[in-house]
Design goal:
Blueprint (H helix, E strand, L loop, with lengths): L2 E9 L3 H19 L2 E6 L4 H7 L5 H8 L3 E6 L16 H10 L3 E7 L12 H4 L3 E7 L11 E5 L2 E5 L6 H16 L4 E6 L5 H14 L6 E6 H10 L6 E4 L1 H13 L8 E5 L4 E5 L16 H13 L4 H16 L2 E2 L9 E2 L2 H11 L2
Parallel strand pairs: 1-2, 1-3, 3-12, 5-10, 8-9, 8-10, 13-14
Antiparallel strand pairs: 4-5, 4-11, 6-7, 11-12
Bound molecules: nicotinamide-adenine-dinucleotide (NAD).
Nicotinamide-adenine-dinucleotide (NAD) binds next to loops.
């Protein structure tokens, strides 16, 4: 039997509560479907700073690189906020992405029908919502040089550089078109080609790569229009592919359409090892109280099964288990509605683990 090696990085705050629930679900899946998962835990973020003085210790990096996939909780919290930027817990995320070479960030925004009233948008606008945002993760303005703040005769000036190369655009475009093939076969490429030359190149290269995927439809959209369309008629989108900066903003916007940050998973792919994590942070305001929603992390584990292990049926089984538990009316406080059963983090994890068929 194949052993799937998973490195666990619970990190800080609620990360320490939700990662064990995803493990519980994977173990239940393993038992029922005959899969062997091997878990290895390592330090990251504030927990690593406290124990060994740095947010991303070498041993953690090694444990990540030696795994078949990595499941991360969250990092950060008020305790480490005074530290200088390079030593902050959040630096571990950039370091991990860079060292693992995960250039594609996948963020699905899917509406669970039974939660449609939790969104701030009208139910009829979000009915059937199922978007996959593919954000370029290791290039663009977050990494481009020159950068910094420098003095000039009039005072100071801040500089950042948006930079994309043909190979960087080609590889992210291929990921987006490949994903669209398994979905509704529509890619919307988002840029600001009317103003930014770097994204004029983006549009040209995405159009060229599209020729390899004639069965997928390609649309181009300016980022300002996309921000508007996501609120106006979000169901027009299937896969959205965009730059690091635009993807950062649009993926948050898309995720809020569904109403709860505690429900949304993510995957970072493209390198040797995939990195899976909920989109939310360490939620220090609710940490340690057994009230955090573990579903985003459990769904991240489902993405791991699908994208790193190619166990599509197992991924779907986890997703169905989540649906089933929600249909039965169980809710953590963040998604609680009148008439539903209030459930803690551990109880929710246990219910989903038990619901795996
Ligand atoms: P956050 O996502 O941690 O929390 C925002 C709000 O959502 C809070 O009210 C929180 O209680 C709630 N929330 C988050 N996850 C939840 C869950 N699973 N269940 C129920 N409610 C949940 O964002 P923040 O408060 O801006 O940041 C807190 C810390 O997390 C900061 O140190 C920040 O830097 C860090 N952070 C880390 C990551 C990451 O590790 N990937 C991402 C974002 C923020």
């Amino acid at each position: 039997m194949k052993t799937y090696r998973i490195t666990l990085l619970p990190g800080d705050g609620v990360g320490r509560e939700i990662v064990p629930e995803a493990v519980r679900v994977l173990e239940s899946l393993g038992k029922r479907r005959g899969r062997c998962f091997e878990f290895r835990e390592a330090l990251v973020g504030g927990a690593a700073i406290d124990r060994v003085g740095v947010p991303l210790p070498d041993e953690t990096l090694t444990a990540a690189l030696e795994a078949d996939a990595v499941l991360l909780g969250a990092v950060g919290g008020p305790k480490w906020e005074g530290l200088e930027y390079a030593k902050r817990p959040e630096r571990a995320l950039l370091g991990l992405r860079e060292k693992l070479g995960t250039f594609a960030n996948l963020r699905p925004a899917v509406l669970f029908p039974m939660l449609k009233d939790a969104s701030t948008l009208k139910p009829e606008v979000i009915e059937g919502l199922d978007i996959m945002v593919v954000r370029e993760l290791t290039g663009g303005i977050y990494f481009g040089t020159p950068r910094g703040v420098e003095r000039y005769e009039g005072g100071e000036r801040g500089i950042n550089t948006e930079i994309y190369t043909t190979p960087e655009i080609e590889r992210i475009a291929r990921i987006a078109f490949g994903l669209a093939r398994k979905r509704r076969r529509l890619v919307t490429s988002v840029d600001k080609a009317n103003v930014l030359e770097a994204t004029e190149l983006w549009r040209r290269v995405v159009t060229k790569v599209h020729a390899e995927f004639p069965d997928v439809e390609l649309r181009h959209m300016y980022v300002d229009n996309c921000a508007m369309q996501l609120i106006r008629r979000p169901t027009q989108f299937d896969v959205i592919v965009t730059t690091n900066l635009f993807g950062d903003i649009l993926s948050d916007e898309a995720s809020m359409l569904t109403g709860s940050i505690g429900m949304l998973p993510s995957a970072s792919l493209g390198g040797a090892v995939g990195l899976y994590e909920p989109i939310h942070g360490s939620a220090p305001d609710i940490a340690g109280q057994n009230i955090a929603n573990p579903i985003a992390t459990i769904l991240s584990a489902a993405m791991m099964l699908r994208h790193s292990f190619e166990l599509e049926d197992d991924a779907a089984a986890v997703e169905r288990a989540v649906h089933r538990v929600l249909e039965r009316g169980y809710r953590t406080p963040d998604i609680l509605q009148p008439g539903m059963t209030k459930t803690g983090t551990r109880e929710m994890g246990g219910l989903i683990a038990d619901a795996i068929a």
